[in-house]
Amino acid sequence: MLSVVICTRNRPDTVGQAIESVAECDFSDYDIHIMDQSTDAQTQEIVAGLARRFEHKLAIHYHHLDKAGLSRAYNAGLRATSGEIIACTDDDVVVAKDWLAQIERAFARDVQAGLLYGQVLIPQSLQEAEQQGIIVPSLPIPKAKRFIRGKGFKVFGMGANMAMRRSFAERVGGFDEALGGGGPLRSSQDFDFAYRMYLAGAAVLLEPSVKVDHYGTRTREQWPATMKAYGIGDGAFYAKHIRCGDVFAAWLFAKVLAKSGRRHLKHLLLERRVREDDYTPNLWNGIREASKFAIDRKSRLYRETDKGKLTVTEANAVTGVQRTDQAS
């Protein structure tokens, strides 16, 4: 059996089509769990209607969470589901008909697979808008890749199209609730989860056959705030593992800084001016904010302190698009 988790907060205009697309997958023996952090009842009403409509095929379960936070919602989804494979998508996504079938095949082929990322594509209806300046976060995957400890790792993935094997997810302790949209450290919960999977001996798969269309958009004016959240989260992600004495994490972080430095130098030489950058300076802000938290070195999860609290911040921050291009 497979279980699907969809985390949502105040998006009644898109969550219905997301759930409907999952319910219409050509697959049997699965259920859907909606982890809702909305501040009104609109999403609950939409889910209730869809549960009645599809009750002949599958169960659609509604869960309301009082406290916002994407990692918190993922962890609640892990606790609520029973499937050995848990597939996750977002509330502004439409999945392909064979989405679950392709996920099942990928995990069946590889018993070491703990985490899978599929393609997040720009739908045809938004391609013209993107050309006019609207930003549609996406994640194309040209070819299948497999990362496992000792054979390379890449910081790459998007939670809008993600699946995991329960046994590995439980082994690493789930998602770090200090990271991710709504958490105090803003983003990078997916990168951190993938890295801890990798450290636990799981294979991380990039699978182009697993496809979704992403309808979430950002304007040019909104994008700097999104990049700020990426920088803070990424800085906190790298800092945690470096504080644990992880030399490989330090090397990955050094590559991020080197790549950013090359881009700034190239821009300065070609444009004769300093390149605007909302991401790199916030890596250091993320490191500073993360220093307020303690670390459980066994699980590599942040823990609260007197200065570092798991408070709710920007609950709807977009997370997970590719920010860097690191590979060993």
What does the model show?
The structure is a single chain. This protein is an alpha/beta fold. The protein has two domains: 2-214, Spore Coat Polysaccharide Biosynthesis Protein SpsA, Chain A, CATH 3.90.550.10; 223-303, no CATH class. It has helices at residues 12-23, 42-53, 70-80, 99-109, 124-131, 166-171, 189-199, 223-243, 247-271, 280-290; strands spanning 2-8, 30-36, 60-64, 85-90, 93-95, 113-121, 145-147, 161-165, 203-214, 294-296, 301-303. Strand 1, helix 1 and strand 2 form a beta-alpha-beta unit. Helix 8 (223-243) packs across helix 10. The protein is globular and about 60 Å long.
Fraction of residues in helix: 25-40%
Order of helices and strands: EHEHEHEEHEHEEHHEHHHEE
- Bin the strand percentage: 15-25%
CATH class of the largest domain: Alpha Beta
Quickly count the helices: 10
Find the CATH superfamily of the largest domain.
Spore Coat Polysaccharide Biosynthesis Protein SpsA, Chain A
Mean pLDDT over the full residue set: 93
Distance between the termini: 35 Å
Class computed from helices, strands and strand pairing = alpha/beta
Low-confidence runs of at least 5 consecutive residues: 316-328
Number of strands: 11
Total individual domains: 2
Largest sheet: 9 strands, mixed
CATH topology of the largest domain: Spore Coat Polysaccharide Biosynthesis Protein SpsA, Chain A
The global form is globular
The Cα radius of gyration reads 19 Å
CATH architecture tag of the largest domain: Alpha-Beta Complex
